[in-house]
Amino acid sequence: MSWNDDLESPYLNVAAYRGSPLRVLAGPGTGKTFAIMRRVSRLLEEGENPKDIFLVTFTRMAAKDLVRKVSDLSIEGGDDLIATTLHSFSFSMLQKEQVIETTHRTPRPLLKFEMEPLLHDLKHQELGGIRELRKNIISYESAWARLQHDEPGWAQSDEEKKFEQKLVSWLKFHQSMLIGELIPIALRYLRYNPESLYRKKFKQVIVDEYQDLNKAEQVLIDIR
Asked: What is the extent of the structural domain holding 137?
């Protein structure tokens, strides 16, 4: 089956468009994912190496489903597509030895039971009570999604800077990382390491459900 079989506008326009970037604005259930699937199929039919296509979706289940749908079209290379979430991509990149040496962070997600020792230690550094500490950790993790600046961040006041320094110091010592740090740290690494192979790894970046990405995730996609 060819990529454009029984394909009509507007899906045909999305799949056939050769410019960059392309952002498709449409409501739920209007066929955006279907058009993206056919766009990927066109690239493969035209000889694009599947390893040069980075297919980003919002959930791992959606990633697997999209690859399956492309594979069902029986187009060569469909089974070799790289489809993932930005969290999975960031985690994989941050695990590389060279990246660890640069970021000085260990990409081991903090386990649930480790949160209590973290809160206990921060409390004894006069950083507030348990409730306040939990609130500050949540604010720290969500700041990159909430703030709309070119360089998203959390610490604004001296107290916030002190809290962030103590929190990150604890996480470094225990070789761990908050889930909310994955993408910000990956973004910071790519932004300040322009020669990184990860900035040149993919020729085609295709994002499904782009509207669900937060500020940091959008910048991470656009930083190539």
From this structure: 110-176
